Amino acid sequence: MKVLIDMNLSPEWVTYLENEGFEAIHWSSVGEIDAKDIKITNWARENDYTIFTNDLDFGRILALTHAEGPSVLQIRGNMLLPEDCGDMILTALKYYQKEIQNGALITLDEVKWRIKILPIKPLGRTME
């Protein structure tokens, strides 16, 4: 699995994930540091990467566009370094491997994990 680490997370994640058998890159090594989230999303989709982020905007982009990818792994909270939450991230990447390959938005925090399969369907009734 290939993981693209967003600018809001430490580049330390690259080494951490590579040591666990994942192909990982930090956005700063492939794109402009001030790139818009949609550009990062498109790059990840075109290059078959899962986005790892602390930014809720990627989930919003997926919801608004009804896109089937890329998969996004969002971590919530204040403890964002590998030494703080690395085990949780590894567990999620392995546990949800199939869903990530098929397209998913996964949100993790210390209390609850949530997953939405892509594309995200709008809520509400349809007119017939």
Q: Give the total of beta strands.
A: 6
Task: Return the average pLDDT rounded to an integer.
Answer: 94
Which ranges are low-confidence, i.e. pLDDT below 50, for 5 or more consecutive residues? none
Shape: globular
Fraction of residues in β-strands: 15-25%
Descriptive account of the structure:
With 128 residues, the chain is of the alpha/beta class. The protein has one domain. 37% of the residues lie in helices and 20% in strands. It has five helices and six strands. It has a six-stranded mixed beta sheet with strand order 2-1-3-4-5-6, sandwiched between helices. The radius of gyration is 14 Å and the shape is globular. The N and C termini lie far apart (41 Å). The mean pLDDT is 94.
Brief overview:
This protein has helices at residues 12-19, 37-46, 57-65, 82-95, 97-102, and strands at 2-5, 23-26, 50-53, 72-75, 104-108, 113-117. By secondary structure, it is α/β, with parallel strands linked by helices. A hairpin with a 4-residue loop joins strand 5 and strand 6.
Produce the secondary structure layout.
Blueprint lengths: L1 E4 L6 H8 L3 E4 L10 H10 L3 E4 L3 H9 L6 E4 L6 H14 L1 H6 L1 E5 L4 E5 L11
Parallel strand pairs: 1-2, 1-3, 3-4, 4-5
Antiparallel strand pairs: 5-6
